[in-house]
Structure prediction request, 342 residues.
Amino acid sequence: MVVLGGYTRLTNSGLSMTKWKPIQHKMPQSDEEWNEEFEHYKLFPEYQIQNKNMDVEGFKKIFFVEWFHRFVGSSLGVVFTLPFAYFLYRGHIKAPFRNRLFALLGLGGSQGLIGWWMVKSGMNEKPDYQSKPRVSVYRLLVHLNTALVIYGGLLWNGLTLIRKPQELLLKPEHLKGNKTLRFLGIMLLHCIALNTLSGACVAGIDAGKVFNDWPFYNGQLLPPNMMEKIPAIKNIFENRGTVQFNHRTFGYLTFTVGLITLLKGRKLNLMRHQRIYLYIMFGLISLQVANGIATLLHGVKPMEANAHQMMAICVLTSAILMTHSARKPSKLYGMYLNKFIV
Prediction:
């Protein structure tokens, strides 16, 4: 779903559906219905500024991408809600897990509203920091961040259900390594989140196309005019050069923290599956760095950029798997294990 959202953004399809129909998800069927949708699309800045030469056949292509994105989102809501309601009714879900699922359900419902709130911003006159009609980069950040929280929450809680409790896995000799790996994993997750959100800023204002060399910026060590906007904080989100610089910097930071985690983890007394996750995590981060550089040098083509976003989700997944494997044991079992630590 997150990758599909990225594809919708990269193909400039997100503003094609100018009406919000949270219940009705039927595609236009007749030529009359298509023409009606197209005429309504013509009332908004994206058509008037960017797509004046588009015909109804071209409109159908971008409309389908946005329609499919919304359809999948609604379908996911049904797939989650119906089984949840059934098991809740049968009394199979106990607190506090029930409360976590209610929170995820609430986030999922709000995500649809956030998505429309984001799309609405692209139907107004474009702000100065955008070269073309686009959704607000700030609202895009909220939309992506909510998606990542939902994904992370689903994955973490799913792992909690299917994995054996730490009390059945942890031995006294693993306790120190488990604690250190958990700390490093949490640090890495913060870096990945920052880097992913900075990537959303890159996509939101087309910052990936402003410099297409590496490791420099059109031959310079730093982008020019990095602090030209006032107030200065706007440069973090609206200055294309600064936004690309931030994304590269967070990428270097993520790679560095991943490397430190690998080197430190190799020396720790870890369980076998933790060590496997450690190597998978660093392998995916290394691939993501190479993929990001290649995407940049090739001019940020939509399919390559979408693959880069897909890899970001894979990196996040590997970090969650690793960190979850190092979760805390119960308090009583932790106290018991500490008796064996000299």
